[in-house]
Amino acid sequence: xxxxxxxxxxxxxxxxxxxxxxxxxxxxxxxxxxxxxxxxxxxxxxxxxxxxxxxxxxxxxxxxxxxxxxxxxxxxxxxxxxxxxxxxxxxxxxxxxx
Length: 98
Description:
Helix 1 packs across helix 2. The chain has one domain. The relative contact order is 0.11. By secondary structure, the chain is an all-alpha fold. The longest helix has 30 residues.
């Protein structure tokens, strides 16, 4: 199965923001909204993989350089709130789903 290029996935995601929502649209994968939901799952899945790898790097190697200025978002979130954010919460925060 051929993977869709990231630009195509993002176009479907954005199109879904502007689609007309009707009851049960999320159940119909051929609608613009249904395609956007599928694209969102793909984007979140890719983001989850990046976050997972970054968490592993941080845990293996420690922080980037020990200075607050050099920390990325994942590193900041791992240290915030006493380190209580889960991987899923970090992905949600990075994606913008609050």
